[in-house]
Amino acid sequence: MSEDSTIALRAAIRDKVAAAGTSFYWAMRLLPEPRREAMYAIYAFCREVDDIADEEAPDGEKRAALDAWRREIDAIFAGRSKRPLGRVLAEDVARFRLRREDFLALIDGMEMDAGLPIQGPSLEELDLYCDRVASAVGRLSVRAFGVASEDADRVAHHLGRALQLTNILRDLAEDAARDRLYLPRDYLHEAGITATAPQAVLRHPHLAQACDRLADLAERHFREARAAMASCPRRPMRPARAMGAVYHAQLHKLRQRGWLRLDEPVKLPKSTKLWLALRHGLI
Description:
The chain is mostly helical. The protein is built from 14 helices and no strands. Helix 7 packs across helix 8 and helix 13 packs across helix 14. The termini are far apart. It is globular and about 60 Å long.
């Protein structure tokens, strides 16, 4: 792929991330340009495989599409990538020493969503899911940030889980509409909820108890992530601090709203996201 083609593709990826309106975009703006462009490419890959898992298609087609991406990851690391996005990622893999197993873990996580809908997983299953769909992305990210240490991987481990659990609590009603329920059955049973059918669980009078337990677990991961960040160089970790601050504020707003009005969306204003990203990313 020519240099002009690479520049054009990276510009298209950047525009797509900006148009998504995600807080991720503002946090990544804190990085130097080469690292920022690598993060946009990682985000584009995440969107590609996530869209496969979420599309209305037979399971076999979804698994075939995910397998095609597994082959593309192998091709990237063998120096013979075929897809335009794969060729861009190959540059970032070489430059920032991104790891094959982290790309594959994310695909494995998407495969968990591509089959029968997840409903009331065990805590162990939920933790594995969070590791694959979120913490694996974190492990790619910290290397793109410029930190490839055990402490940085601890940040990825805990912050990825904190962010994913916050997403789960934010999207309870949306997931239930797709017949999915990520609240762990361990917490459901503690609350006296034996059902795992999503709509039945969301109507249960003890739902708040299970949600609060999961929110407490997210809070613990936020704390552990901050502790791990303290052992890392400050400047490269600015995007992680910014993302943590935005999502922690989101979790706080969810807890303030409570778990009775799940059809009432909880969103941070763009101005608040930007302020948090700047406040926690520039200090």
